[in-house]
Every structure is written in C-alpha cells, then in structure tokens.
Design brief:
Blueprint lengths: L3 H15 L4 E6 L12 H8 L3 E8 L2 E8 L3 E2 L2 E6 L4 E6 L9 E7 L4 E6 L5 E10 L2 E4 L16 H8 L6 H5 L10 H11 L12 H22 L39 E5 L2 E5 L15
Antiparallel strand pairs: 1-7, 2-3, 3-4, 3-5, 5-9, 6-8, 7-8, 9-10, 11-12
Helix pairs in contact: 1-6, 3-6, 5-6
Bound molecules: zinc ion (ZN).
Organism: Nocardia jinanensis
Cofactor: Zn(2+)
Subunit structure: Monomer.
C-alpha cells in the first residue's frame, strides 16, 4: 500500500493535470477495477461523463476527485480512488499506446486520457456521495477516517487524549485509521524511532509529552518524505507504485535490520508485529516499561 506522502504526490499531480477538465467518456475494461461500485461500470460511466474535475482531495492514504456539474455547481458525488498495491493514475496525451494493465480510461476534453493502471487489481474506482463530517466534506465511505497529521485542522491535543485511553500497543494505535490516519507500517516505525519509543509499549502508559513528541515526529517524517520524493515525478506521469522506492533514502530505521542505528550505533532489530515487520533500535527504543506480552 502506498503511504501518505506517495498519495499526496499523486494528489498534487492530479490537481495540476486534471482540475477544470471535463470527462467526455469513460471506458472500463476490467470489471474488478470497479467491483466496489455496486451499480456497475455503466452506471459509473454515465454519472461521471459530462462532469468537470473540481479538485483532487486526500485524507490519510485515501484519494478522491470532486466534480462540478456545468451550469449547476458542485456535484454531490466523489470518485474515490483505491490505489491498492499497484494502482497508478496516469494522465496521457492522445495517441500514447494504452498500457497493458490500463483497466479504466476517462477521455478528457483536451484529448488526453486519465488512465487507471493496476497490474495486481487490488485497487479500483468507486463513486460515493459526499457527506459533512466535522466541518469537512468527505465521501461517505471515508467518513470514519480520522484527520491525518498533515491536515491543517489536525488536533494533536485531541489525538493525544485519545491515545491516552488506549490500553494497547502504541504502534497498533498509530496504524488505526479511525484514531489518526495516513500512518502506515513504514512511517509508524520511523516516527517511533525518532521519538525514541518502542512500538510495543502500551499507549495509555506513555506520558502526554512523549505522545505529543511522537505525533510531531510522525508529522515531521512525512513532511520530510514528501520533500524528498515530491519533486521527482515526471510531469506527464501522475503515478504511484506501492513498491517503488523513491522515498527510501529518507528512511532511518525501516528496512535496516542488522545495520547500525544512525543515532547510537546499536544494531537495528527486526520483529514481527501484526503479521508484518517492525524495525527498532534496542538502545534508543527500549522495549521495557509498559510492554504487553506479544499478542
Ligand atoms: Zn539507536
């Protein structure tokens, strides 16, 4: 799964290339890519055609487009894009050969095509009504997703208060998109390392200042990743690949098992957590105090 900085790069690219463009037609060539849209491919095509793209939006790792209906105003439907493991949003000039795994194509009024390319077909498009949640308009299927640390209205004090009530491992809570969104396995490890907190420690046992530092570090690591990777995408290609490595240079601990901690020199440890790998420094992030037996 792409993490927040990668999705934000895609969002910025889509903003640059799509806003103001009108969708003239939509072609779906793989039913799996619209399986979340229960009314089917023809319904999706009929409802998007004729709308112009108003904005590309993001919350956490979730991405959607909003539309204007010519002569009417804001459309009340959003197009939610699930990037899955391998989804890409490409904006291609007319005449560029169609990619092998291009499963949805939307023709734009300037002749270009927006193509959803997804080799592994875990991703897809779905239409969802917009609803107001805590002062923001969100697709209804994302109404439960909490604000992410890069959201201007992210309320760190409130989130610290929620974390203090959680009697479970802090890493597990950081990954809970209903508490704080946009933090995946990679940036959870990076934020925990920066804040010198072991992910296995119990959230409610951590002090407010430590939790505040942790949230600030989550914000900082994603801002840094965005700065490192946010300028490297080709102007024509608006894409993301969950397995691409262009943010890797910014990582201090994730994926660095058996290598020295860049801060203290101790050997980075890899552990299993929630069926995935967690990386931490045994010296900077002592796993003791408040740690629950592994579950
Ligand atoms: Zn260390």
């Amino acid at each position: 799964m792409p993490e927040l900085p990668e999705v934000e790069v895609v969002r910025r690219g889509l903003t640059e290339h799509l806003c103001g463009r009108t969708v003239e037609s939509v072609t779906v060539t793989h039913p799996r890519s619209v399986r979340r849209h229960e009314a089917g491919a023809a319904d999706m095509a009929a409802r998007i055609t004729g709308l112009s793209v108003a904005a590309a939006m993001r919350r956490g790792k979730y991405l959607w487009l909003t539309f204007d209906e010519p002569g009417v105003g804001s459309a009340d439907t959003a197009l939610v894009v699930h990037l899955g493991m391998s989804g890409q949003m490409l904006v291609q000039p007319a005449g560029v050969p169609v990619e092998k795994h291009a499963h949805i194509r939307a023709t734009l009024d300037d002749g270009r095509e927006l193509r959803f390319v997804d080799q592994r077909t875990f991703g897809g498009w779905v239409l969802a009504p917009l609803v107001e949640v805590d002062g923001d308009l969100l697709p209804d299927l994302l109404a439960h997703i909490a604000r992410d640390p890069l959201d201007p209205r992210f309320d760190a004090d409130r989130v610290v208060g929620v974390l203090r009530t959680k009697n479970t491992e802090i890493k597990r809570v950081l990954l809970d998109q209903a508490v704080i969104s946009g933090i995946g396995n990679i940036y959870a490890d990076e934020a925990l390392w920066r804040a010198k907190v072991h992910g296995g420690r119990i959230a409610s046992a951590l002090t407010r200042p430590v939790l505040r530092t942790l949230l600030a570090e989550a914000q900082a690591v994603m801002t840094d990743a965005l700065a490192a990777g946010g300028t490297s995408f080709d102007a024509l290609y608006v894409n993301v690949n969950g397995e691409s490595g262009y943010f890797e240079r910014a990582l201090a601990v994730y994926g660095r098992g058996d290598r020295p901690c860049t801060r203290c020199g101790a050997v980075i440890v890899r552990e299993k957590f929630m069926n995935r790998s967690s990386y931490s420094c045994p010296r900077c992030q002592p796993p003791s105090r408040g740690r629950r037996a592994s579950s």
